[in-house]
Design brief:
Helices cover about 40% and strands about 20% of the residues. The chain has about 280 residues and is of the alpha/beta class. It has two domains: about 60 residues, Ubiquitin-associated (UBA) domain (Helicase, Ruva Protein, domain 3, Orthogonal Bundle), CATH 1.10.8; about 190 residues, Vaccinia Virus protein VP39 (Rossmann fold), CATH 3.40.50. Strands 5-4-3-6-7-9-8 form a seven-stranded mixed sheet, sandwiched between helices. A two-stranded antiparallel sheet has the order 1-2. Helix 1 crosses helix 2, helix 2 packs across helix 4 and helix 9 packs parallel to helix 10. The longest helix is centred in the N-terminal third of the chain and has 15 residues.
């Protein structure tokens, strides 16, 4: 069987399973096994796939057809143009989070010294911050031991010696003031957990379930966030839909934040909030 025939066979399987991008996913799985760039796969279209590779490829296609996320199947994901390890230990990095990250970067002081990636998960934002600001100390915190193990692997992959990982609930382990905190906390309403897309259900529930209305964890964090951000420091959060307006109201009501901004993702859904800590 040639490379193009293998891709078409897998694509038929994925299409029947309701996968929205069956050809692209099939190509990505085959490229993952062969190490080929996309143009190399095109050039190898009429070349036979070695038997062992074909067997492994079919096994990957069957996993993807079960609606397991492509990133779990290949064990890798991309964030801000960088490759990261990916597993069921943490959320699959998503384009919406890249937008939140960019807004956070844009609001930060030019040369921050101490930053916190709260709910670091796989560590993608913490690693990118460590690479962006090599002179700074970056802390990534999470309540999940499994997620922190994955984050440690990603930190090692990118050689970020200035990223330090801490296991704790929200900010309970810290007494310092940060120049900025970026947070991607659970915000799916508990009643909506059973209605999630099949791929999302492979993510850990602890990283998704935000309790009643999806705001329980976020509200706990926002109510005390000013205690851990220095005057002039930046706060950035990801949430969804009407939650964004609720977060804005919480920030405004605390009288601790200035320059509160919010916006939408590329799909037009309210997605992010940033704020700057008022002077003492």
């Amino acid at each position: 069987m040639t490379h193009s025939e293998a891709v078409r066979e897998a694509a038929r399987l994925l299409r029947a399973a309701g996968i929205q991008s069956p050809i692209r996913d099939s190509e990505d799985m085959l490229r993952h096994l062969t190490g080929m760039a996309r143009h190399e796969l095109v050039l190898a279209a009429n070349m036979p796939v070695p038997g062992e590779t074909l067997e492994r490829f079919r096994a990957l296609a069957a996993r993807r057809a079960s609606r397991e996320p492509l990133q779990h199947v290949t064990g890798e994901a991309w964030f801000m143009g960088r490759r990261f390890l990916c597993s069921p230990a943490a959320l699959v990095p998503r384009p919406e989070t890249e937008l939140v990250f960019e807004r956070f970067l844009g609001a930060l002081p030019r040369a921050p010294d101490l930053l916190l990636d709260l709910g670091t998960g796989s560590g993608v934002m913490g690693v990118c911050l460590a690479l962006q600001f090599p002179q700074a100390t970056i802390v990534g915190s999470d309540v999940s031991k499994e997620a922190l193990h994955l984050a440690a692997s990603n930190s090692a992959l990118h050689g970020t010696g200035n990223l330090f990982l801490v296991r704790c609930d929200l900010m309970s382990a810290f007494s310092c003031l940060f120049d900025g905190i970026v947070a991607n906390l659970p915000y799916i309403p508990g009643v909506a957990m059973d209605d999630l897309q099949p791929e999302v259900r492979f993510d850990p529930a602890v990283a998704l379930d935000g309790g009643a209305g999806g705001m329980e964890v976020i509200e706990r964090f926002v109510s005390s966030a000013h205690e851990r951000v220095r005057p002039g420091g930046v706060l950035a959060l990801e949430a969804s839909g009407r939650q964004i307006c609720r977060i804005v109201r919480l920030l405004e009501g605390s009288n601790e934040w200035d320059r509160i901004a919010h916006g939408r993702d590329l799909a037009g859904r309210a997605r992010w909030v940033t704020a700057v800590r008022k002077p003492a």
